[in-house]
Amino acid sequence: MPFFDIVTNAMILNSVCILSSIFQVVAQCLARQTSRFIVPPIISIVFILSGYMVFIISYLLSREDREMKIMIGLAIVGTIFVSLNWWENYSTLFRNPFLNSISEDIARSRNLVGILSSVVRILVTAAVVGAYVPLSGRDWSSVTSVPDNVRRVIWILVGIQIVSSALCHWFVVVACKMHAIRRSFLLPVYLASLGVVAAFIAPVIIFYQNLSKTNGANYTMTEYCYDITNGMGLNHNASLPERLVSDITHTLCPEDINDRTEIGFLVGSSLCWWLGWVLCTVYIWGLQLQRIERTQDLFVRRMYEGAFLEQSILLNTHFKIRMKKKVHRPDDPVTVFLCATMWHESHDEMMKMIISMFRLDKYRPKNNPNNDVSFESHIYFDDAFKDLKGSKERHINQYAEDLVEVVQQVYRIFSDDCSGIFREHPFQTSQRIIRTPYGGRLEYTLPHGNQLMVHFKDKLLIRNKKRWSQIMYLYYILGWRLNRKYFKKFVEGDDESELMEKIEKEKANTYLLALDGDTDFQPSAVMLLVDRLKRYPDVGAACGRIHPTGAGPMVWYQKFEYAVGHWLQKTAEHVFGCVLCSPGCFSLFRGAALMDDNVMKRYTTKATEAAHYIQYDQGEDRWLCTLLLQQGWRVEYNAASDAYTNAPQDFKEFYNQRRRWGPSTMANTIDLLGSGSLTSKRNRSISQPFILYQIISMAAAILGPATICIMIAGCLTLILKIHPNLALFLAVVPPVIYLILCFKLKSDTQITIAALLSVLYALLMIATALSIIGTMVKEQTIWTPSGLFIIAMVLMNLITAGLHPKEFHLVIYGLLYFICIPSGYLLLTIYSMVNMNNVSWGTRETGGPAAPKPPTQTITQRILQAKCCKCPCWDCGKLADQNGQVTETVIMDEKSQDYPDLTSQEHHRNVEFHLFQKIEQNWVTHLQNKFHDFHLNEECLATEEEDFWRELQQVYLEPLAEYKEKEKIIANELKELRNKVTFVYFICNAMWLVATFTLQLIGSSVTIKIPKYDLNLNPTGQFLYIDPIGLMFLIGFTSLLLIQFIGMFYHRIYTLIHFVAFLSMKSSTSTIPSDDDMQIPDTLETELNNCMYLDKSLTIQNPAIIQRHKSETLV
User: Fold this and answer.
1) Counting Cβ atoms within 10 Å, is residue 127 exposed (0-12), middle (13-18) or buried (19+)?
2) Minimum mean pLDDT among 123-137, 522-536, 795-809, 1035-1049: which range?
3) pLDDT at 693 > cutoff 80
4) Confidence category of residue 919, pLDDT binned at 50, 70, 90
5) Which residues face 512 on adjacent strands?
6) Phi/psi class of residue 845: alpha, beta or left (left: φ > 0; alpha: ψ in -120 to 50)?
7) Of 114-128, 677-691, 729-743, 1057-1071, where does mean pLDDT reach its minimum?
8) Which residue windows are transmembrane per the record (predicted)?
């Protein structure tokens, strides 16, 4: 290359596509695709060969000596050899078994091959340099004796080349994942070579124009080249840019130039090579990519060639034979089963969940043209039946009736998409009601064709609680629904190997979306999780960003707690290893992962030991993820997938919830760490450093109470100006007393004491923060441990929140979170450990009647249930709630010619209140009579499915028998486990406190002395004394936060890439409604309550346009 000009050196690199063009022609011919798609590579070959011919002629005209001929030959042969670099892109197209086996072997050991090939390249390069120096008659001193300034420039250029090449390759990958392949990948890369040449030639022209002004208007380019070639026209004190321009000009101006023929040859060869390269890679323009396409599916090899970056990136892009007719080959269709578990949810909570399911039905109708994802919804309702006096059978309770009512209301909302607010005909869609071995089932066909099944569980027939509901839908969907059809085909004689291949593919493309009964989400949130599982086959589960909803200080605290947990902890787990817990309120699971060995089968294990009750039943979501991780599956987190769920709004409910979460989290983490070596071998996402990170995090969590006590001691020292040891003693006394009281008092009393202490600690934290700020202002320095810690925490949280713009407002709740640290990490830990033996659920435990609906909601319900096409009357009958109480029903007099005023009770009408109670003999009749306009048709369950449910009940889901003696044994074992865990906790924290107390007692002889500095970083002559243990803990805590911050930053970048890719594909698909079209306005009830008169049978539909009709009068 030193023998040629700089333009030739830059453009001859485009000729490395010569063999790729030939391979494309051969591949198209072998595939018998002699269409127009074979023309570009043929023309590319012609252009490249023409460029070679012009290149040879141009340099042989100037020099015909032997050395020039050798250099020309080496340049051409070298580019041909380099073009062999991308043979693997076309090996599978030739259908050669030898080439295919080599490609498969290389793909399996890609990283090792890359390392070995890089080592070989370095050795070959060194050998060439070592042979060239003596063979060319040069001395080694010409190589080694490089001036320092030149060596510095060389290293700077090498660094720039490495960094810029890596960034360019990364941005190319990002552009492809974001579906900006044409405007952000192809066009910039195509123009890169031309841009480089222009960047070199432009300064030469500018320099020539400046010299022509000095030497006169007759100063020609030939004279300019002559001057530069002979060392004239450049001052001795010239700057570096001027010397660089001189060097470029020297390569562009041969000594014997006498006309413009050479320039023509130079431009001609350069354009031929460039056009040949463009035509060779033009197939990328029509490349069809999936959203967030995997890098290994984008490029043949992960590595790139830094010397000719743009050429290597384009030629490394996967080549696919293009057909005469466009054959659309979509991905295998995905089926998503929404599986929600319910128990004692309120009317509003049910409404959120049902509306979210109906949104998905509208977003992806049953017969949608995309045919990429289909949805089916299931609701499993625990303890849905009750005994009712006078009835032969058990009836569904008020909570279950509320659910049916909510489904009916939401069904009416989504049942029609016309532009009117009201329609004259009640919907006539027939739904099915079925008796089942586990209780009963309602089957709805939603307005857009998808299915919704509501499974009512009778705890006298089938095992109760959430984990067993999950086992129900796992075996029903993955066992019965998925396997049954293939088993029938196998019985009919179909090929077993073909059936196994199909079932494995369907298992991989069957997803289960686990939901809680109060989860609210948009269709886009589900699709973002689907993307993760579709693109990455080793992902067994993915969760989204959970937002707690509600009002009050407890919810505010949880908003920031959830935010920090997702911003830092979950992102760090995702980036450096795997997410340890995919919450059951909104997580997508792969069917193949759940059906893997030791996952679904082991998940059915009945708790027989005390530790099982903690790990299995108190944290079933975390235990399921632990099983997936141990089996080798990856669990991921997508921050752009938002879901909303109700959070505990009072102190007692919050403490009871965390009493359940805390021990189960510790039990599952210890289980995972205990099998860390085996898990890291099975799961390539979990490495030994990640295991070490989790061990450090666990140690920090265990030592949390002692650390809080030390922090409180520091607060007392700062505020009261007392000795550190006395402050430490005073800080330890209240938690110890609370610990003793927790063993003696009832749970409610413990929570009351914790609430009082939390208020006192919050006041202490406020005083401490103000004291630290006052001390920094007084001493005019921030270089103190407490000052630096507070400033660092504030800055980190502000920066983290700034990287989450839509959630930046949550930093306001950070102040509440800060003052509640002692309550959350000291008192709550003590309460959780001492009450570990309490294995009750903790939330929604009340089994009483559902809360009565407000009057406005009752009126709304009656409007929605009105059926007045025959007579202007309302007669819904008298219903009994689950306590047997009578519900009044308003019946209008048939003779009344006026319409009822729903907002006034002072009107004079003939209204009778009939107080009677009608008790149906079974729950089916009861629902059919209560929701008579919903057409619940009773049908029978298929015999095969009934046999399946009975067998499943016998094997896994029989109701647990109550044995008083066994329950006493388990209760004693739970207390023993509680005592052991509490003792270990106490000893670990006591050792930490004693070590700190001892070091403070010894004094400055064992402390680390750190000088103080003022704001100008000038020493103040004073010193700070920190004990080694405290410094070690501070360094460890800071390291954890730094690791989490780095992981968060990395995760934010890829979340942005995924979200932009989703929006780009979403905007290009006009048939799919956006999330904005899925919104249900809160003004629905307001409009209903404001409706004064009704003239015929009217049902609400399409509430999205209600606000446009506010000014209309309804007649």
Assistant:
1) exposed
2) 123-137
3) yes
4) low
5) 337, 589
6) alpha
7) 1057-1071
8) 6-26, 38-62, 68-87, 112-133, 153-173, 185-208, 263-285, 690-720, 726-743, 755-776, 782-803, 810-834, 983-1002, 1023-1043
Residue 323 is predicted with a pLDDT of 53
Using one digit for the tens of pLDDT, what is the confidence trace for 394-417? 899 999 999 999 999 999 888 865
d(C-alpha 272, C-alpha 276), whole Å: 6
Give the pLDDT of residue 443.
Answer: 94
Task: Select the more confidently predicted residue: 538 or 141.
Answer: 538
Tracing tokens 């839908």 back to the chain, one arrives at 473
DSSP per position, 812-868: HHHHHHHHTHHIIIIIHHHHHHHTTT--S--SS---SPPPPPPHHHHHHHHHHH---
Rounded to whole angstroms, the Cα distance separating 564 from 551 reads 19
3-class SS string, 454-505: EEEECCCCCCCCHHHHHHHHHHHHHHHHHHHHHHHHHHCCCCHHHHHHHHHH
Q: Mean of the per-residue pLDDT values for the chain?
A: 80
Distance between CA atoms of 17 and 282, rounded to whole angstroms? 12
Burial of 671 (0-12, 13-18, 19+ CB in 10 A): middle
Q: Is the pTM of this model over 0.90?
A: no
Predicted local distance difference test score (pLDDT) of residue 821: 93
Tokens 């080599």 sit at which residue?
Answer: 102
Non-local (6+) Cβ contacts of 907 within 8 A are 900, 901
Residue 719 one-letter amino acid = I
Distance between CA atoms of residues 807 and 564, nearest Å: 11
As beta bridge partners, residue 177 has: none
348: tokens are 């509003």
What backbone torsions phi and psi does residue 1017 show, to the nearest 5 degrees? 60, 30
Check pLDDT > 70 for residue 1027. no
Better-predicted residue by pLDDT, 1016 or 334: 334
Instruction: Look at residue 417 in the predicted model and tell me its pLDDT.
Output: 52
**Helix 812-819 and helix 747-779, axial crossing angle in degrees, nearest 10:** 110
Helices marked H in 219-283: 221-229, 240-252, 261-280
Q: Would you call 173 helix, strand, or coil by DSSP?
A: helix
Largest CA distance in the chain: 121
Q: Which residue type sits at 137? A: G
Q: What is the DSSP string of 581-626?
A: ---TTEEEEEHHHHTSTTTHHHHTPPP-SHHHIIIIISSHHHHHHH
CA distance 323 to 32: 9
Check if the beta carbon of residue 1023 is closer than 8 Å to that of residue 1010. Answer: yes
Distance (Å, whole) CA 797 – CA 384:
45
Instruction: Look at residue 1069 in the predicted model and tell me its pLDDT.
Output: 52
Q: How many of the other CB atoms lie within 10 Å of CB of 40?
A: 18
Instruction: Return d(Cα 33, Cα 323) in angstroms, integer.
Output: 7
Please list, in sequence order, all residues whose beta carbon lies within 8 angstroms of the beta carbon of residue 804, skipping any fewer than 6 positions away: 563, 567, 639, 1052
Cα separation, 410 vs 429, in Å, equals 14
Can you give the length of the chain in residues?
1115
Residues forming a β-bridge with 75:
none
- Residue 846: per-residue pLDDT: 53
1075 neighbors 524 (Cβ within 8 angstroms): yes
